[in-house]
Design goal:
Blueprint: E1 6-12, E2 21-27, E3 30-36, H1 49-52, H2 60-66, E4 72-74, E5 81-83, H3 86-104, E6 109-113, H4 119-133, E7 138-140, H5 147-157, H6 168-171, E8 174-178, H7 182-185, H8 187-199, E9 204-208, H9 214-217, E10 221-223, H10 230-243, H11 249-255, E11 256-257, H12 259-266, H13 271-278, H14 282-294, E12 298-302, H15 304-307, H16 312-326, E13 335-338, H17 345-350, E14 357-358, E15 362-363, H18 367-377, H19 390-398, E16 404-408, H20 412-415, H21 419-428, E17 431-436, E18 449-452, E19 461-464, E20 469-473, H22 486-498, H23 508-513, H24 520-530, H25 543-549, E21 552-553, E22 580-581, E23 600-605, E24 631-634, H26 636-641, E25 649-653, E26 658-665, E27 673-677, E28 718-724, E29 729-737, H27 739-753, E30 761-770, E31 789-797, H28 803-813, E32 821-825, E33 830-836, E34 843-850, H29 855-864, H30 879-886, E35 894-896, E36 901-902, H31 903-911, H32 917-928, H33 938-947, H34 954-961
Parallel strand pairs: 6-7, 6-16, 8-9, 8-12, 9-10, 11-22, 12-13, 16-17, 17-18, 23-27, 24-26
Antiparallel strand pairs: 1-2, 2-3, 4-5, 4-18, 14-15, 19-20, 20-21, 23-28, 24-27, 25-26, 25-28, 29-31, 29-34, 30-31, 32-33, 33-34, 35-36
Helix pairs in contact: 2-27, 3-22, 4-22, 4-24, 5-16, 10-13, 10-14, 10-16, 13-14, 19-21, 31-32, 32-33
This protein binds iron/sulfur cluster (SF4).
C-alpha cells in the first residue's frame, strides 16, 4: 500500500442530476475511495450504488486498460488509430475545421457536446460556435433528456427555471411522480422522499407510469397508463377539478392568462373519456385529481416519460397547467419539478449551449438578447437562425450537408435514435473529431482524431443540479497521461482557428483574445457576468463563496447572501405581463402507433446500477450483479403466447432494424409492451442487421421522430415486432481473470466477435462480473486462482459454429488446454470445459458450446466459490442431468449490490420474520446487512417485505434458530 498521506477532496458525483456531493479519497495520484459529502445539501452524505463505486472506476487497472491517454489519429476509417503529439493534433483539428468552414461555410460544421461537461467547458464550446464559427450548430445530448422540460417551462412559466427545491419533498402532502422511475434513476432523491413519507405518513404518492416499476410499487395509487396518453390523463384530471370546483379561481385570475381556451378544451375530457384514452380506471383518475387539487401542497416530479416524446413539450405543459389551475406552485412543498437526467444539463442550458438558446437564458429570436451577447463577446452580432439540433445534425451529416462533426464527452453512436442513420452520418462526414476519456466508446471507433479528456476526479469547474444548485467540481488527482480538460482543448483549437477564420469585423489577434482563458475560473467569471439582470442572476456568487459556504441555488444576485430556494412565491412570472400562461393543447398520437406488423410498444429506460452508455459503470462487474445481461422484458401473458421461457432469444424489429435479445417475463411490463434498458449499445451487444451490417444496439430500433417544439426524440416509444427465434446453438462461458487484463480482454473479444468469422452469430455479449475492490484494498490485480473480476460471454446462432472457429475465443479466456476437464463432440459442435482452481475443489471457469442448458448451476459455482458438490467430472454432463445429479439450485437474483445479497437469502429470512413491515425490514438488515450501505435496494426490499408473508410459526422458528 502507498505510504503517501490520504487526501480528501470535495467534489460532486458525475452521474445523474441529483448532483450529490462526494469526498474523493486519494493517495498521491491515485483515487482510492469515495464517500458521500455529509455537508452537501443534495445528499447529506448519501450515495447510491453508482456514486458509491465511483472510485472503483478510477482504479489504476481501469485507467491502464480503457482510458484514452494521448491524442490518436486514424489515417483511414476502420483502421487502427496511431498516437500523435499534442501540437500536430491541435494543428490537424484546426486545419481540417478551417478548411471545411472556408469551403462549405459555417453550416458544414456540427458540434455535439454533453450534459456531462462542466459549465466552463460548455461556455467555451458555445462561444466558439456562436462567436467564432458564426452558426448556432451546437447541440448536446441534453436534447435527448431535458429539452421538452425546457420548452414546457418557457411556454408556461416564461423561463427555463425549475421552481422547486429538494426540501419541497419533505413539505409536500401529495406527490405526483410521472414518467420517472425515481427509485432507479434518482435513487438518493427517492431515498429522501421515502424518508419524508416515513416522517409524514399522510403524504400520498401517485405514480403515473406504463410499467409497474419499483417506484410504482411504493405508490398509494399507480395509474398504469397507455404509452403516450399523458395529456389525455392530465386533461381528464383537470376536467374533474373544474367539475368539482377544486381549481383555485383566485390564483387563476390574479396570476395567469389563457385559462378559458384550456377550460373549453378539457370540457370534452371527462374522466370517462380520459379512462378510455389512457387505459386507466376512471375512479383512479378521479382519485388522483382530488388528491392533487385538494392537497395543501402538491409536488410533481417528472422525467423522461414526459420528455422523450414526440409531444414532450405538450406533456410538460399539461402537467404545469394542473399546477397553475390549482395554485400548486410558488409555495412550500408545491410545484412542477423536472428531475434532470444528467449531472450538468442545467449548466449547459444556463450558458445557452444548445442550438436554440443563447447565454444566460437569452433567446435567439430577440434582437436585444443577441445584441447583449454580442456586446459581451466584443462582436457586432451573433447569428439569429437556430442551429441543427441533435437528430437534425446527424441527419444532415448522413445527407452530406454537415462535413465535420466535433463530438465532446458523449457517445452518439450509442445514445441517439436510429443508429443506422447515425452510423451513415459518422461514415459520411469528412472529419470526425472526438474528445473522450474512454478509448472504447462506439463513437471513438469513427474518429479521425481522438483527443484525450480528463474525467471525474480530474476536472475543475462547476455544475448545476436539478434544484438550480451550483456546486464546485474539484480535481483530486492530476490528469493522467496526456489527458486535458475539455475547455482547454476547445480553447486551443479555437485560438488556432481564430488565426484562420471567424468574424471579419475582428482581426485575428482580437479573435484569438476572445479565448484568452488561463483557467476554469476565468471562464466562469465571464459566464457570471453574462447573467446580470437575468432570471438566473449569479452575480452574487463566486468560486470563493462556493468554497466558503458551499453549493448555492440560483438566482443569487450581487448583494444577496444566499440563493433562492423557491421561485414564483410572489405569483409574478418572467413573462411580458408577469402572468403564467395556460397553454391549450390537444392530445396527439404517438409517432409510431402499434399496428399488425409491429404490435408491441417498446419502452427504453434505465437500470438501477447503470448509467447511460456504460463507458464508466460498465467497467465494474459489481454493477452488473443486479442485471447481468442484455435482455427484453415482456409481460408473462406475452411470454406464454409466444411460447417463450426466460432466456429464450427473441428478434425485436422496428421499421429501422432488428436486434436479438434474451427474453424475460416480468409482470411489471404491461401486455403488448416491451422494456429494454437504454444502456445496451454496440459496446456490449453484438448482432447484425438483415443486410449483414453490425447493429448499433437497442437504438437501432428507436425512432428519430421528435417533438416539433423541443426537438426531443421519442425514445420512450417505438412500435416493434417480437418473434421467437428457435436457435439451435449457443455459447456460454464464465471465468475469473486477472483484474489488470480483464477489460482489455473484453475489448479484444468484442472486436473478434464482430469479425466476419462470427457473422452467423445473431447475438453476442461479453460483460464483466465480480466484486472489484479499491486499489488500496486489492492485491494489485494479480489474482491467482480467483480474483475480483472476470468475464461472462453469451452468444447464440441459428447454425452451429465450427469448434475451430471458436478456438481463439476460448484461448483468450484461458478456457483451453490440457489442464481443463473437457468433453467434446465435434460433429455436433458440442464442447464443454471446466477450469478448476489449483486445489481442484472449486470451479474457476466454464465453457459450454452447443448445449448451454443448466449453465445457471455452473454460474453459481463459479460465483459463489463453494466447494464442488460432487465429482467435478459430473459437471460435464448435459444441463438437466447435471442439475439432477448434483441437486443444486441456481443462484438467485442479486438485490443488494453493495453487500452481494440475493433474493433467495432475503426470502429465507422474511419467511421466518414476523411483526410490522419496518420491524421485518430491520430484521433483514440485522441478519443480512442488505440495504445498510447505499440504500439503492431499499425500495425493492420494502416490496419484498410486503410480498413475502411469514410462514406459520415463524416467530417460534426464529427463536429456536437464534
Ligand atoms: Fe450520483 Fe446516485 Fe447521487 Fe445520482 S443519486 S448524483 S448517481 S450518487
Amino acid at each position: 500500500m502507498s505510504t503517501e498521506p490520504l487526501r480528501s477532496t470535495r467534489s460532486t458525483c458525475p452521474y445523474c442530476g441529483v448532483g450529490c456531493g462526494v469526498l474523493i479519497k486519494s493517495r498521491g495520484e491515485q483515487i482510492v475511495g469515495v464517500e458521500g459529502d455529509p455537508e452537501h445539501p443534495a445528499n447529506f452524505g448519501r450515495l447510491c450504488t453508482k456514486g458509491s463505486t465511483l472510485h472503483l472506476t478510477a482504479r489504476a487497472e481501469v485507467q491502464q486498460q480503457l482510458r484514452l491517454l494521448q491524442p490518436m489519429q486514424r489515417l483511414e476509417r476502420g483502421g487502427a488509430a496511431q498516437p500523435l503529439a499534442w501540437e500536430p493534433a491541435l494543428g490537424l483539428a484546426s486545419q481540417r475545421l478551417a478548411e471545411i468552414w472556408q469551403r462549405h461555410g459555417p453550416d458544414a460544421i456540427g458540434v455535439y457536446v454533453s450534459g456531462q461537461l462542466l459549465t466552463e467547458d460548455y461556455y467555451v464550446f458555445n462561444k466558439l460556435v456562436k462567436g467564432l464559427l458564426g452558426s448556432n450548430h451546437i447541440d448536446t445530448n441534453s436534447r435527448l433528456c431535458m429539452s421538452s422540460a425546457v420548452a414546457g417551462y418557457k411556454a408556461t412559466l416564461g423561463a427555463d427555471a425549475p421552481p422547486c427545491s429538494y426540501e419541497d419533498l419533505a413539505l409536500a402532502q401529495t406527490v405526483l411522480i410521472t414518467g420517472s422511475n425515481m427509485a432507479w434513476a434518482h435513487p438518493v432523491l427517492f431515498a429522501r422522499l421515502e424518508e419524508a413519507r416515513r416522517a409524514n405518513p399522510q403524504q400520498k404518492w401517485i405514480v403515473v407510469d406504463p410499467r409497474r416499476t419499483e417506484t410504482a410499487e411504493r405508490a398509494d395509487l399507480h395509474l398504469q397508463l397507455l404509452p403516450g396518453s399523458d395529456v389525455a390523463l392530465m386533461h381528464g384530471m383537470l376536467h374533474l377539478m373544474l367539475w368539482e370546483s377544486l381549481i383555485d379561481r383566485r390564483y387563476i385570475e390574479q396570476h395567469t392568462s389563457g385559462f378559458e381556451a384550456l377550460r373549453d378544451r378539457v370540457r370534452e375530457w371527462t374522466p370517462q373519456a380520459a379512462a378510455r384514452a389512457t387505459g386507466c380506471r376512471e375512479d383512479d383518475i378521479v382519485t388522483a385529481a382530488r388528491w392533487f387539487a385538494a392537497s395543501p401542497a402538491s409536488l410533481s416530479l417528472y422525467c423522461q416519460g414526459l420528455n422523450q416524446s414526440s409531444s414532450g413539450t405538450d406533456k410538460n405543459i399539461a402537467l404545469i397547467n394542473l399546477h397553475l389551475a390549482t395554485g400548486q406552485i410558488g409555495k412550500p412543498g408545491a410545484g412542477p419539478f423536472s428531475l434532470t437526467g444528467q449531472p450538468n444539463a442545467m449548466g449547459g442550458r444556463e450558458v445557452g449551449g444548445l442550438a436554440n438558446l443563447l447565454s444566460a437564458h437569452r433567446d435567439l429570436a430577440r434582437p436585444q438578447d443577441r445584441a447583449e451577447v454580442a456586446a459581451l463577446w466584443g462582436l457586432p452580432d451573433v447569428p439569429a437562425t437556430p442551429g441543427r439540433t441533435a437528430v437534425e445534425m446527424f441527419q444532415a451529416a448522413a445527407d452530406g450537408e454537415v462535413k465535420a462533426l466535433w463530438i465532446a464527452c458523449t457517445n452518439p453512436a450509442q445514445s441517439l435514435p436510429d443508429q443506422a442513420m447515425v452510423r451513415r452520418a459518422l461514415e459520411r462526414a469528412e472529419f470526425v473529431l472526438v474528445q473522450e476519456s474512454f478509448a472504447n466508446t462506439a463513437t471513438a471507433q469513427w474518429a479521425d482524431l481522438l483527443l484525450p479528456a480528463t474525467t471525474w476526479g480530474e476536472k475543475d469547474g462547476t455544475v448545476t443540479n436539478s434544484e438550480r444548485r451550483i456546486s464546485r467540481v474539484r480535481a483530486a488527482v492530476a490528469a493522467p497521461g496526456q489527458a486535458r480538460h475539455d475547455w482547454a482543448m476547445a480553447v486551443d483549437i479555437a485560438q488556432r482557428l481564430a488565426r484562420q477564420i471567424g468574424p471579419a469585423s475582428l482581426t485575428p489577434e482580437q479573435r484569438v483574445a476572445m479565448f484568452d482563458y488561463p483557467d476554469a475560473q476565468s471562464i466562469w467569471e465571464e459566464h457570471r457576468a453574462s447573467t446580470q439582470g437575468r432570471d438566473l442572476d449569479i452575480t452574487g456568487l463566486s468560486y470563493e463563496l462556493l468554497e466558503q459556504v458551499g453549493p448555492q441555488q440560483w438566482p443569487m444576485a450581487q448583494g444577496q447572501t444566499q440563493g433562492r430556494a423557491r421561485l414564483y412565491e410572489d405569483g409574478v412570472f418572467p413573462t411580458a405581463d408577469g402572468r403564467a400562461r395556460f397553454v391549450d393543447i390537444a392530445p396527439r398520437p404517438l409517432a409510431e402507433t402499434r399496428r399488425a406488423a409491429f404490435p408491441f410498444s417498446l419502452n427504453t429506460g434505465r437500470l438501477r446500477d447503470q448509467w447511460h452508455g456504460m463507458s464508466r459503470t460498465g467497467t465494474l462487474g459489481r454493477l452488473l450483479g443486479h442485471t447481468s445481461q442484455p435482455m427484453v422484458e415482456l409481460h408473462p401473458q406475452d411470454m406464454a403466447r409466444l411460447r417463450l421461457v426466460d432466456g429464450d432469444e427473441v428478434g425485436l424489429s422496428s421499421g429501422r432494424g432488428q436486434v436479438v435479445l434474451s427474453a424475460k417475463g416480468n409482470a411489471a411490463v404491461a401486455p403488448a409492451q416491451a422494456f429494454v434498458p437504454m444502456h445496451w449499445g454496440s459496446e456490449s451487444l453484438i448482432g447484425r442487421t438483415a443486410d449483414g451490417r453490425l447493429h448499433g444496439g437497442i437504438n437501432e430500433l428507436t425512432t428519430p421522430v421528435f417533438c416539433p417544439k423541443s426537438k426531443q426524440p421519442e425514445l420512450k416509444h417505438t412500435a416493434i415486432r417480437v418473434e421467437k427465434l428457435n436457435l439451435s446453438w449457443r455459447l456460454m462461458a464464465r471465468v475469473w481473470l486477472p483484474g489488470r487484463a480483464v477489460l482489455a480482454l473484453r475489448q479484444q473479444l468484442m472486436q473478434m466477435l464482430a469479425q466476419d468469422d462470427f457473422k452467423s452469430l445473431v447475438m453476442a455479449s461479453v460483460l464483466p462480473f465480480g466484486r472489484e475492490e479499491a486499489d488500496a484494498d486489492s492485491a494489485g490485480g494479480d489474482v491467482g486462482d480467483r480474483g475480483s473480476s472476470g468475464l461472462v460471454l453469451r452468444a447464440a446462432a441459428s447454425q452451429p459454429l465450427p469448434l475451430k472457429t471458436l478456438a481463439p475465443i476460448a484461448a483468450l479466456l484461458g478456457l483451453d488446454g490440457p489442464a481443463l476437464l473437457a468433453y467434446e463432440d465435434a460433429p455436433h459442435a458440442q464442447q464443454r470445459r471446466l477450469l478448476l482452481d489449483a486445489g481442484g475443489q472449486r470451479l474457476r471457469g466454464y465453457w459450454l458450446a452447443g448445449d448451454t442448458s443448466g449453465h445457471e448451476l455452473l454460474d453459481s459455482l463459479v460465483l459463489e466459490a463453494t466447494p464442488l458438490p460432487g465429482a467435478a467430472r459430473l459437471l460435464l454432463a448435459p444441463g438437466a442431468l447435471r442439475q439432477r445429479w448434483l441437486q443444486a439450485a441456481p443462484r438467485s437474483a442479486q438485490i443488494c449490490t453493495c453487500l452481494d445479497v440475493n433474493e433467495a437469502r432475503i426470502r429465507a429470512v422474511l419467511l421466518k420474520s414476523e411483526g410490522q413491515p419496518e420491524q421485518r425490514l430491520q430484521a433483514l438488515q440485522t441478519q443480512l446487512r442488505c440495504g445498510t450501505e447505499c440504500g439503492s435496494c431499499l425500495p425493492r426490499l420494502r416490496t419484498l417485505v410486503a410480498e413475502i408473508a411469514p410462514e406459520a410459526g415463524a416467530a417460534a422458528a426464529a427463536a429456536v434458530a437464534l
